[in-house]
Amino acid sequence: MKLADCHNIDDFRRLAKKRLPFPVYDYIDGAADDETTKARNTSAFDHADLVPDVLAGVGAIDTSCTILGRKSALPLMLSPTALQRAFHTDGEMAVARAAEKFGVWFGISSLATHSIEDIATTTQGPKLFQLYVHKDKGLNASMIERCKAARFGALALTVDTIVSGKRERCLRSGFTTPPRFTPRSIWSYATRPRWTLDYIFGSKFRLPQLDGYVAEGTGKAVSIQDYFNTMLDTNMDWDTAARIRQDWGGTFALKGVMSAADARRAVEIGADAIMLSNHGGRQLDGSRSPFDQLPEIVDAVGGKIEIILDGGVRRGTHVLKSMAAGATAVSGGRLYLYALAAAGQAGVERALGILKDEIERGMRLMGITSVDQLTRERLRWR
Predict the structure, then answer these.
(1) 268 contacts 282 by C-beta, under 8 angstroms
(2) Which of 119, 200, 293, 302 has the fewest Cβ atoms nearer than 10 Å?
(3) Of the candidates 291, 287, 248, which has an alpha carbon nearest to the alpha carbon of residue 271?
């Protein structure tokens, strides 16, 4: 299977599985407990049907919209995800360049493998930083100040990860950051020589946002579960979120909101956006999918705050359904991580191109010329 054989996101998933050692692949693909919520995030889109109009004159269409105060060429963001150099040697740099080429937002994680400053010099496109609140207040302040200096366009506080979900695939494989070879996994690494040689002879694996504060993830191998459970602040509350918003002073989002009550609180503290997310099913298994929960959130705070649906998106029609249900935009991580793992920047660009084509084709078949014409009248729930 080659890159040219990838015609949808699931094709990239299959190619990534071929090219990655199994502990690394399972880190991307896996989720919490029985992985019920991860599957539900995508299958939820099957519960709603699009209702098209015809004879609408759709020779020229406009896929752009405004997200977090910036114009985006597509109603699509690339969510911040950790450890991207574990998936491809170029990591976040490849994703940043692809996002800029397609005119869409790109997010980096507190656990990114390239620095805030390097990302800022790589791309002039809109950039979001995802903040994990650590127990070390100096580290939190450092990341916020570095993002200010680098002129990041927005900060998203992740609120659903005060402890780690039970990611059983990672427990079985022994995946750590940095990745380490174990007796059980050594054959998988040996039979993926391109990945392994890039990892051994490439730049040292680092989490540069943590430099000077913690060794975990850079000089000391640690599982993601152990990192979250020991380093992150379980006392984080609404006062913490309001203080971080004030310290940041710019466009601010909460990532991981799923209830109407929390959506209202986000409005009250002055957040600009909420990212409706269950962390890709990696935290609380058995929780509701973002798409299923979207109408309730829209009814509660629609028009008062941007609502970005994050999770489960695999098709252009998923984007259209989300917009019709009231989302400002959608975002996703695996939708580009599989492509990054499969073929680096070229893979991410191909994945974005496929999604762009699907959105454009879907709009024409729906009989609409701009995304703001996607309203609830265009949707029927099963």
Answers:
(1) no
(2) 200
(3) 248
Phi, psi (degrees; rounded to nearest 5) at 231: -100, -30
279 catalytic residue (yes or no): yes
Alpha carbons 162 and 133: distance in angstroms, whole number:
8
Range of the domain at 334: 3-381
CATH assignment of the domain containing 231: 3.20.20.70
**236's tokens:** 């984080």
The per-residue pLDDT for 182 is 83
Say whether 159 sits in a helix, a strand or coil: coil
Per DSSP, helices labelled H in 209-280 are 224-231, 238-248, 260-268
> Could you tell me which residues come within 8 angstroms of residue 159 by beta carbon, excluding any fewer than 6 positions away?
236, 241, 254, 255, 256, 257
Tokens of 121: 């010099």
The residue ranges of DSSP E strands in 144-284, in sequence order, are 154-158, 252-257, 273-276
Domain count, the chain: 1
Which of these is catalytic: 114, 134, 279, 318? 279
Q: With contact defined as beta carbons under 8 Å apart, do 377 and 50 qualify?
A: no
Q: What is the pLDDT of residues 330-350, one digit of tens each?
A: 999 999 999 999 999 999 999
